Amino acid sequence: MKSNPDHPALPYLLLATSTAIWAGNFIIGRLMHGDIPPMTLNFWRWTAATVIFLVLAAPKLKSELHILQQHWKWLVMLTLTGVVFFHALVYTGLRSTTVVNAGLMMATNPIVIPPIAWVIHRDKLTRQQFAGLMVSLLGVAVIVTRADISLIRTLTFNTGDLLLLAAVPLWGIYSVLLKDRPKELSATVLLVAIACLGTLLMLPLYLWELNTMGGIVINAANLASIGYVAIFASVVAYFCWNGGVARIGAIKAGPFLHLLPVFSALFAMLFLGERLEAYHIPGIALIGVGIGLTVWRGREAQAL
């Protein structure tokens, strides 16, 4: 008896969930930058995640180990782009920039993914997807500028912003390479592999930082922060993002990163006492329309 297919809304729910969790990851990275150095946070995040993934993947790991060995080059590229260098740049950048600017930098990712997808897989962006991308990007601009175009002149960019911008194509490469996952390789084994390999590759960076900046104080705040980024931003969010991308592709998934400023604003209201401003409403609406255009299947899909 065949299993029921996924609900059509499932990939979009997965992608939105991962984006919401990563918005919280940015907030923690910024709030705790004075207590937890960036390489330390990234190392212990994936060390803890590796333990969790090992428990989840244990039944399948031995039988699928040969698949990982056959595709080791692809696995190394996934790990370097999506685990090691991406988060090292993000956490380092958050030491000298704001969460708003971080959201702005990450919101450029959907623009980068289509050309990367074309170079690697010759995937083409349709006109409808391009229109949706532009509409959702406009929504991001409305939120960032607070619907006041004159504020663009006051936006400043520093070293942290440049580091975050450098991280953008790395996430694009990671997302596009997910398409090459062998059918025989389960999601849990893939994640335990990149988490474990990522931890090993980050070890030299962590030891260097430990020697130059020192370790962290073991307290409730630091442990809770590492726990969040390990359990939610690593395990849950990566399961959701990888699952969503596997179902609809990187080009369609990319615009969901435009939800980062939306979730950042919502979290600020929930946890920091900020209010919903008038400019949030058209910005969120434009992002929603843009994502809808990107993922909606029309009768004809003409490539650019």
Record keyword descriptors for this entry.
globular, mainly alpha, 12 helices, 304 residues, 74% helix, 0% strand
Could you characterize the architecture of this molecule?
The radius of gyration is 19 Å and the shape is globular. The model has no long low-confidence stretch (mean pLDDT 84). It has 304 residues and is an all-alpha fold. It has one domain. It contains twelve helices and no strands. Helix 1 crosses helix 11 and helix 3 packs antiparallel against helix 7 (159-177).
| Number of beta strands | 0
Order of helices and strands: HHHHHHHHHHHH
Q: Residue share in helices?
A: over 70%
**Rg result:** 19 Å
**Biggest sheet, open or closed, and with what strands and sense?**
none
Topology readout:
Elements: H1 10-31, H2 38-70, H3 72-93, H4 99-106, H5 109-121, H6 127-145, H7 159-177, H8 187-213, H9 220-248, H10 250-253, H11 259-272, H12 280-295
